[in-house]
Every structure is written in C-alpha cells, then in structure tokens.
Amino acid sequence: MININLKSLIGRLNPTVRNALEGGAGLALSRAHYDVEVEHWLLKLLEESDTDMIAILERYEVNLSNLARDLTNALDKIKNGNSRPPSLSPNVVDLAKEAWLLASVEYGHGQVTSGHVLAAMMLDDRTRRQVIDSSKELENLPGESVKEMVRSIVGTTSESTTVLGDGATLSAAEGDVATAPSRHPALDKYTINLTERAAEGKIDPVLGRDPEIRQLVDILSRRRQNNPILTGEAGVGKTAVVEGFALRIAQGDVPETMQGVCLRTLDLGLLQAGASVKGEFENRLRSVIDEVKASP
C-alpha cells in the first residue's frame, strides 16, 4: 500500500464521510474496542440520509435495516476491554486511501464521498470479504458495477452537490459552474500546497523548532548550495520543521526574497496511483518538474 500522510488523507474526506468516521471512533470507544474497524465506519455511514452510499445501496435493493442489524451483531463479537481511545485499524486506513485514490485519479474529484468509500470497499478483495462476512446483504454488489454507478450518482444527492472536481463545482441552485483552468494542473493534482493550508489555519502551531527553521531559511537564502536536506528517523519532527516554515511564509516572517513563496509537498501516492502504463509515472513527474521550472 502506498504511503499517504494520514492527516492529509482525513482532510480529503467530505464532511459526511469524516463525521461518520468520527462517529465510528465514538462507537468503538463506547464499546471499549481497541480499534475502529470498517464495520464501525460503515454503520455510521448508514445513519446518514440522502448520501451517495445510500442511493447506491437502494439501487441494488439492499435491505438497510438488515445490513445495520448485521453490522451491529458483528461489532458485538469484537474483543473489548480497551480503556484508551481506539486507533484506526489498518483496514480502515487502507480503505480511506483506496477511496481517495479512486476519487482523485479515477473520477477527478477533489473530495471522498460515501460512494467512493463503498466502491473502494467492494473493489478490494480483502475488505469485500470482511464486510460480506459481517453481512450477506452486501454479497450481490459487484465492485466494478458499483464503481461505474458512482459516476452517475455523485452530484445527485445532498451529500455530493459541493465541490468535487478539479476546478468545477456542482450547486443545487446554480447547476454546473465552470472556473478558469489552473495554470499548474500537475502541481494542483500531485502536490499539497502547505503555504495555503497554513494561511487557512489548517496547520497547527509548531513549537520548539525555531533553530531548525532558521537554519532552513538560511540555507535557502544562499546563492549556492541552497538545497536543504532534512534527515532523521521517523517521528523526529522533519515534517514539523517544514510545516513551521510554511507557517512563517504565510505570516510573512521570512526574508523579502521568500515573501509570497508557495511551499508544496509532493504526494507520491497520487503520483504513483494508476501509473501502471509504462512511462506514465515519468510523464507525471516530468510535468510537475516542468511546472516548477516555469513558476515565477
């Protein structure tokens, strides 16, 4: 499984899907479960109305009451006794990753809806077996068929009439509204704009990293040998230094030569996803490099 930053991944979930995941975590906590499992998440998604997932399940004539009952029974069998907040299980994290890759690469959508989650669930053999073991109501949902149905469902429910595409919105009142095409589509698609996230308050304050951030600024300010490399074991704070630098840029607390600079991180998961055709990965990477070179 491709490595994608979990915090960034959660940020890609639309409010319905993210709230259901948080509700699933609350459900796991109330049952003293050690992990938040796919069944917790799915059960909470079933509580929402007028969503992509509900629309698809109804198309397949799935009995939602029976499905909810089966999932509840499956949760009753999970080991309990945990006294701490539960963690997201690897299966849930993998499902969220697959749903995001499906939404972004396959459909070109900017957020994950419950329809994407259901399609990813049915397309992955392991997750499909897991949920069918929990409820036979799902055994007649072919993954590829669900995947195609998502195309016609997304945008027709109250859940998905918000921004989904690369520069296009769907509004219940206004219909399709086109926006000007991006000047850097590859960067928008395969990178994360940390400066923008910092300006929007989506990056928490970074404490205790001032010396490292100053050193980073000093190196970048050089005329020569100005490529800093952050090394260290996982968890020592390399990402925190970069995020702290992004906060400094957003606040204008950098030298004049760096004012207004856009700091981006390359999302290797998106860059590699669906690039099975020979040369596709190289073409994507080349387009990113070309847009960086063309940047003022």
Low-confidence stretches: 163-181
Number of strands: 6
Helical segment tally? 15
- The percent of residues in helical segments reads 40-55%
CATH domain class of the largest domain: Mainly Alpha
Q: Residue-averaged pLDDT, rounded?
A: 86
CATH superfamily of the largest domain: Clp, N-terminal domain
Largest sheet: 2 strands, parallel
Order of helices and strands: HHEHHHEHHHHEEHEHHHEHH
Task: Determine the strand fraction and express it as a percent band.
Answer: 5-15%
Shape: globular
Write the layout of secondary structure elements.
Elements lengths: L5 H6 L3 H16 L4 E2 L1 H9 L5 H8 L4 H13 L10 E2 L1 H17 L7 H10 L1 H10 L8 H11 L14 E4 L3 E4 L6 H6 E3 H6 L10 H11 L17 H14 L12 E3 L1 H5 L7 H15 L2
Parallel strand pairs: 1-2
Antiparallel strand pairs: 3-4, 5-6
Give a description of the structure.
There is one protein chain. With 296 residues, this protein is mainly alpha-helical. It has 2 domains: 6-178, Clp, N-terminal domain (Double Clp-N motif, Orthogonal Bundle); 185-294, P-loop containing nucleotide triphosphate hydrolases (Rossmann fold, 3-Layer(aba) Sandwich), CATH 3.40.50.300. Helix content is 53%, strand content 6%. The protein is built from 15 helices and 6 strands. Strand 3 and strand 4 form a beta hairpin. The radius of gyration is 21 Å and the shape is globular. The model is unreliable at 163-181 (pLDDT under 50).
Put the structure in a nutshell:
By secondary structure, this protein is mainly α.
Entry keywords:
mainly alpha, two-stranded parallel ribbon, 296 residues, 53% helix, single chain, Double Clp-N motif, two-stranded antiparallel ribbon, 6 strands
